[in-house]
Each structure stands twice: as C-alpha cells, then as structure tokens.
Amino acid sequence: MDAVAALNEIAFLLEYDLAPRFKVQAFRRAASAIAGVPDAELRDRLADGRLARTKGIGDRTLQVVTQALEGELPDYLAKLRDARQAPPESELAGLLRGDLHTHTEWSDGTVPIAAMADAADMLGREYIAITDHSPHLTVANGLSVERLQKQLADIDEWNRTSQHDVTLLTGIEVDILEDGTLDQTREMFGRLDVVTASVHSKLRADRAVMTARMLAAVHDPATNVLGHCTGRLVQGSRGTRPQSEFDAEKVFAACAAEGVAVEINSRPERQDPPDELIAMALDAGCLFSIDSDAHAPGHLAFVALGAARAEAAGVPADRVVTTWPLPRLREWLAARG
Predict the structure, then answer these.
(1) Interhelix angle for 59-69 vs 3-16, to 10°?
(2) Euclidean distance between CA atoms 173 and 43, whole angstroms
(3) CA geometry: angle at 258 spanning 278 and 189, to 5°?
(4) What is the C-alpha separation between 144 and 202, in angstroms, rounded?
(5) DSSP assignment of 243-263, as one string?
(6) Distance between CA atoms of residues 61 and 320, nearest Å
(7) Which of 39, 82, 125, 233 is the most buried (most CB within 10 A)?
(8) In which residue ranges of the chain is pLDDT below 50?
(9) Residue 325 CB coordination number (10 Å)
(10) What pLDDT was estimated at residue 337?
C-alpha cells in the first residue's frame, strides 16, 4: 500500500485511541518527510541507507515504509486495525453530515487546518466548523482578534482552492467568562459562521452563579451551540472531574426558546451531557449538535459515540442540527446573528 497513507492511517487510529501525542506525531512527521517522493526514489533511498538517516524517520516508521514499499500491509497497521473496537452502531451516526466543534494547531489542536479538512473529507463529512479557542484560555493558546482574522483568511483560501467536497465553516469555541459575557469582540462574532460557547474556568462555582453565567451566554445572540455543558470528565489521562452544578431546567428552557443547540460532546473522556440531562434537554424542546471536539484528525470519528448516546436517549434525527444539509444549517446559524 502507499507508504504515506499507511503512516497517516496509523496516526489516525492512534488518535482515535487517545494515544500520547508524541507517539502520534512520530507517524505524522514521517508521513510529511516522505510526502511527494515517488516510490522508486524511496526504494533507492531505502537501499542506500538515506531513508534511515532522513529527519523524521525512526525505526518503527522505517519498518512501516519498508513493508509498504514491498507491497505488504505493514505489521503495525494490521495490529492497530485488528485491535480497534468498532464504534457502536446507530442509524443516527449514518445521518450525520457535519461537526460544529473542532480544533487545529492554531490553538490546542495537533495539526493544520488542511489536515483536519482532509480527514473530514475522508470520513464523508459535508462540513465541519473550525472552532479554536478564544483568547482568555491562554493555556490552550486561544486566538486574539488578530490571529483569528488571519485564520479566517486561511479558511477562506482553503474553501476557494480545495478540490475536496467538504466545506469549512469559520467559528470559535468561545469562553463563557465569569460574568456570562463571551470572550471575543462583536465585530469578530459578525464574521463567524459558528459560535460554540463553553465554560472552561471556575467549574465548581455555586449553582446560582453558574446558572446565571450560562443563561447570559445562551441569551447572547452570538451563541449557536452550548458546548459540553457540565464540564465533567469521566475517564482519561486528565483524571476525572465532577459535573458543574446549575439549574438545567432553566438553562435548557432558555436554549429551546433562543434556538441554541445543546452540544452532545462525543469525546470518550467527556460524554457530556450525562444521559439524564440529554433527556431533560429533549423534554425541554432543545435542538442538539453532535460534535467531536476533535483536537486531531482521528478524533473526528468520535461522533459515532455521541450519536449512539443520542439515539439511545430517543433524540430524533431532525432535532440534531449536524444531520442537516448545509443550506438548512446556514439558515439556522444566520437566524441567531
């Protein structure tokens, strides 16, 4: 098989399994190191030892490239394919068209915009929103106005020149500050397709304080999606974290009234909202957005996990905005501006 494709698939599968970043990056660096080099040239470099001395090629990646050039399925890729657990089956997963919460290396993601777009296209997505963090979240390299402006220009250029079928939507995962305001300027909100608003700080605040904070964000006309509403962590390398306390009935009633979608965050370590809150939001009449919160290409496949949870909770497909075709989605997004 193609050596670059093998290296990238290994990276994708490792990302899906939430492998350490350094391990994933070894395969992505190797893929970059040989990208565009004809197989005949790679074989010459392999034969005379130059490939082994190439920056970005290590023992394991050299073995993958060697086996691919020999027309074999690399052993390491075969092992990962065999070990991968199939995502839970659901009809809803097959209806998903897009994803309104993804990150790139512009903030705390691991790859450039183009790599996320490539993966989204491979997975058959019609659209994804690039929603890197806002400036208050310095630990995640949040985007200033100036950096966000530059990113918007890059996304526009990609959409104009790409041969892919997927459309990139401009967006932001904006921090809901302690007073309920959103961490970006009005002028920039007016230039974005999607605003996913999330709480990232003071997650253990008093119930009344957190409720007021979230209600202010939901009532803000810039907000399209309420992201990972409880902030909980249920597993993973960061440990666990209890869910934030807030008046879910009031918050979900506001979401339903304002037309703000409640995110079903598909990351395995979040599974947010909990099942009982999905049911509450469903009863309140809310829309939902099943999102990956991807920080790497392999994470885009997480939406199957969120779809299975939504289907088990009885969420109808038409209440999930990420099942909508792009024209309908754009109408909904524009109505909140």
Answers:
(1) 130
(2) 45
(3) 105
(4) 22
(5) PPP--HHHHHHHHHHHTPEEE
(6) 40
(7) 125
(8) none
(9) 11
(10) 65
Q: What are the C-alpha distances in Å from 58 to residues 52, 66, 68, 116?
A: 7, 12, 15, 24
Closest-CA residue to 117 (of 99, 139, 91, 140) = 99
Instruction: Give the chain's largest Cα–Cα span.
Output: 69
Quote the CA–CA distance of 41 and 57 in Å, as a whole number: 15
- Residue 200's SS3 state is coil
Q: What is the pTM of this model?
A: 0.95
> H or E segment at 194?
strand 194-198
In 10 A of CB 208, how many CB atoms? 11
Q: What pLDDT sits at residue 316?
A: 98
Of the chain, the end-to-end C-alpha distance in Å amounts to 48
Residue closest to 273 by CA, chosen among 295, 253, 290, 260: 290
User: 320: alpha, beta or left, given left = phi > 0 and alpha = psi -120 to 50?
Assistant: beta
Element (H, E) at 226: strand 225-226
Look up residue 266 and give its amino acid.
S
Phi and psi at residue 315, in whole multiples of 5°? -75, 120
What is the chain's length?
A: 337
pLDDT score recorded for residue 209: 97
Give the C-alpha separation, 192 to 172, whole Å. 8
CA dist 182 and 21 (Å) reads 30
Give the per-residue pLDDT at 237. 87
HSE-CB at 12 with a 13 A cutoff on CA atoms is 20
Q: Long-range CB contacts (< 8 A, 24+ apart) of 139-146?
A: 139/108, 140/107, 140/108, 141/106, 141/107, 141/108, 142/107, 142/175, 142/183, 143/106, 143/107, 143/172, 145/184, 145/185, 145/187, 145/188
**DSSP per position, 267-291:** -TTT-BS-HHHHHHHHHTT--EEEE
User: How far is residue 164's CA from residue 333's CA, in Å, rounded to a whole number?
Assistant: 23
Q: 12 and 297 in contact (C-beta within 8 Å)? A: yes
